[in-house]
Structure formats: structure tokens, C-alpha cells
Specification:
Diaminopimelate Epimerase, Chain A, domain 1; 1 helix; 13% helix; Acetolactate synthase; DUF6497
């Protein structure tokens, strides 16, 4: 018998869910792998333990890669978290201004997150876009990592920025 998790994991190439509701085991004993239609094109999807990062274009031109999508019900409503790696935001060696990164996050919400939640018929209360200069596991603290987060409410085909 599987325990219900607080959030579902869909690490992907722009598709959800990568594993059935309830998730897959990380030891390769997943309940399902498959072939799921994507927003842009159909690509093979691997079990949740295998991630295939997807490059995404943003207005600033910085290299941004989608690494995972989390369907999180822990806040009491469905939050869809889009996690990206963007090396140019790094402190010290990075060349990306936080204001420009914020514009990129607005674009990612409108151009990627909204079509994604519509395509997968998700009733998202919030969309969270996060940029990190390196891969960081969800919920794990990394003092060396630079991370930017923005939260949005998807409403009437638009991303409404939510001030924290």
C-alpha cells in the first residue's frame, strides 16, 4: 500500500505527471513510465528518478533549463512549482540583474506555466517560478546557491504577480 505524498513530482521535459498520482519509487520500482504528449512535442518520459532537463528561451537570452515541475498540495491548495536552473544569476560570477530575471520569470509563467496547467487541466491556486544558479533539491537549503522565486495567481489567461 502506498502512502499519499504531500506533493506529486513531475520532473520532466514539459509534461505532467511524469509518474502516476502518488508518485514513483526512486529505486526504479516506479508504478509507471510512459509516453505523454507534451506542450511542444511528444518525447519519451522517464520514471521520476530520471530527469531530462529542457532548455527554455527567455527574453533576456540567459540560459535557462526547466529541471522539474512539482504539484504541491501542502499549502492547502494546489501550487504548481516550475523549477529552473539559470547559471547567470550566480552571485559574484553571474551577470544577470534580479530585475531582468524577474521579467524572465513573468515570461516563463505566461509562456510556459499557463499553457502547461491548461493542457493538463490543473486547478492551480498558485504558480511558483523559481530560478537557481545550480540544481538544488526541493526543500533543501544550500547556502552557496543563488535562488529567485516569484508566485503568481493564474486568472483569466494571465499570471497575476503575488507580492510576498
Amino acid at each position: 500500500m502506498m502512502k499519499r505524498r504531500r506533493f506529486w513530482l513531475a520532473r520532466v521535459t514539459n509534461a505532467a505527471p511524469a509518474a502516476p498520482a502518488g508518485g514513483a519509487f526512486s529505486q526504479g520500482k516506479g508504478r509507471g513510465c510512459g509516453f505523454i504528449p507534451l506542450i511542444v512535442a511528444a518525447l519519451p518520459i522517464f520514471c521520476a528518478s530520471h530527469v531530462r532537463a529542457t532548455p527554455v528561451e527567455v527574453p533576456s537570452g540567459q540560459p535557462v533549463t526547466l529541471t522539474e515541475v512539482l504539484l504541491d498540495e501542502a499549502p492547502g491548495a494546489l501550487w504548481v512549482r516550475f523549477r529552473f536552473v539559470a547559471p547567470d544569476i550566480a552571485q559574484g560570477g553571474g551577470r544577470m540583474d534580479p530585475a531582468v530575471a524577474a521579467e524572465d520569470m513573468d515570461h516563463l509563467c505566461t509562456a510556459l506555466a499557463l499553457p502547461y496547467i491548461l493542457h493538463h487541466n490543473l486547478a492551480a491556486a498558485r504558480v511558483v517560478i523559481s530560478l537557481s544558479d545550480r540544481p538544488v533539491d526541493f526543500g533543501v537549503s544550500d547556502a552557496e546557491a543563488t535562488q529567485f522565486f516569484e508566485a503568481y495567481t493564474p486568472r483569466d489567461g494571465a499570471c497575476i504577480w503575488e507580492e510576498f
